[in-house]
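Researcher: Next entry in the queue.
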Amino acid sequence: MRILVADDDTVSRKVLERTLAGWGHEVVSAADGEAAWEVLRRDDAPRLAVLDWVMPGLEGPDVCRLVRSLNRPVPTYAILLTSKGDRADVVAGLDSGADDYVTKPFDRAELESRLRVGERVVSLQQGLADRVKELEESLARVSRLHGLLPVCAWCKRIRNDGDYWQSVEEYVTELTDLRVTHGICPPCLARECGDTSHG
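Model: Structure for this entry, 199 residues:
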């Protein structure tokens, strides 16, 4: 998974980069909060971010607030990695929009576990966003079936939204999950076969 690492301390950043790369992640680096925000505001932003708290320009909590303001269906999962370990700092960090909080120096096993949690959360959010999109598309198809339906008085074809005339079967199949089958109604059977016993 692509992970953003943002830390103004070069040594700390390089150690974290090597650690994450060793776990199989693709690492994107930023040397300060402004650069981190530039990466995270893009449409192709990494799904996870490990942010130092104290950085020039924008601090880690500032970046978290900005990321949350984007209101994306699948927001970046943000972990604050900092030497600030007091309870008040943890609360302030999480209140800023961080999803998790790890203190420096980090324990490798703990960080790896927390990243796995982040991956699971991102995966669940993506699945939910995909399902919502499917439902919205289904509702859009259903809404197209309301209102006036232009039908040719002679051939009974239906004019679709693209101003193209198509058969009833094509129209219904395109807009719904229904499959059209064919049969002969009793009046048509009587008319075609000369059977006068039907209505």
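Model: The radius of gyration is 29 Å.
Researcher: Noted, moving on.
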